[in-house]
Amino acid sequence: MLSLEKPFADVRRHRFEGRRKGLMGHTGRRGCYCSSCRLESNGNLEIMRSHKPKMANGNDFSYLDSADHLGKPSSRLREPYLVTDFERAGLDTSYSLERSLAWSIVPDTLAAMSVAPPSTKKRPDGKKDTTFVLEATGAFLPTAAMASATRDLNTKIYSVQGRHKKLWKHVAIDPPMGVQGEFLKASLHCSGNRVPSTAMVRCNQTASAWDVATSRGKPLDIDLGQNCAIFNFSTQGRHPMTRLYPRRYLGDDKIWRVEDRDLLRNVVVSSSGDETYYGPRYTVLCTEADNEIMSHDRRQWTQQMYVTRYELQWREDGGRSWNSLGVFNGNTDPTTEVAHSFSMYKNLKARYLRVIPIDCEGGGAMRVGIYGTPIERPLDKSHAGSGSTEVNEKNQLVTYVLTSAPEWHKCSPFRVHGRTSYANDYDREKPKRKRLLRRLQAKEDMMEAIGM
């Protein structure tokens, strides 16, 4: 039987291209080491999660390792680390998921465990972010020794006098006794200066306070967002500037030294002469002598700043005039939270509060706290007397963001849609062109100088 097909039509033709040998006739491009190209090499997927584990510096708590079993290093976990069913299923976001086809099952697993429908957002660079929300089903807790050491660093402030350390103040992490209601979120404003959004009580950061001295006599306005039943109002001064003791600094001889090394134990000297401290650390007050290790800010806040007397006014949502609640005693030190109760005012409902400082110490600074409950939500007896800002772990949600890159994605500034044979490495060619332009410009300048 005579065949009508072309000879060797059933044999696949091999395309030869001299520019791209070894690609079997297909086009290709030169790879680079940017994050976009690394993302493509990892299966076009990467994943990030909220509530990442907060670990402490190893040298700061190395003195706890000696008490561990068989001398093994103890855990450096500072705060509880929330986990979901995603981690319990054997998956994790802290290391590569390329093994055992994990990348292929991650999207389906997250979608099945999510408590809300996934949301997708396309980014300007062509990547796509898919957000999944999972409920926390467990937590890894820090060890008792680590929790105690971390709590001491956050709550105990010492003053150093020679070789002696004296406890200056114990900072409370809970609201005062007798405070009712929950801690209300609020936005702070002042027409005279900028107010940090973190200028709230028990936010122990030096910059997290309203500065009265630079407000040009303007009051502090507080917006609760809606009408709320207000039970208590509290204030604090500016948290004093602190540092860790002992500190490690670079000496004039380019060798790392430890502060007060002659008075301390557990100081180890390496073969190069560098000194490292492996003992317990303390939170101490900064003094004028510490300016060399502090930031070069014109205001170091080494003085104590707080408001001793102030007037408090309130206004409802839609109201036009301010109503005065009276003059209240403020703080006598920068760290103690002083709260006032409004139990004598039945059904005090307000959205806006205004604080007018009267007497100040050190220029004046203030952190505020409002306790109550929103009007739209009925009063719950479980909130009475709590005054806590903590959230139950069962109601905490963990967010996962899955980023995917399409096959045509190419790193900026040279983006190519599709497959190409002549995609050059733009970043490597750019310096060569700059050098060539500089040489040409220098040659033209020389020719003009000799008059040619």
Automatic annotation (TrEMBL):
> What is the protein's given name?
F5/8 type C domain-containing protein
Q: Which organism is it from?
A: Prymnesium parvum
Q: Tell me, what's a Pfam family for it?
A: F5_F8_type_C
> PROSITE patterns from the entry?
FA58C_3 (PS50022)
Residue ranges annotated for the F5/8 type C domain, each copy included: 306-373
InterPro entries with a match to the protein in the record: FA58C (IPR000421), Galactose-bd-like_sf (IPR008979)
Question: Per its UniProt entry, which superkingdom is the organism in?
Answer: Eukaryota
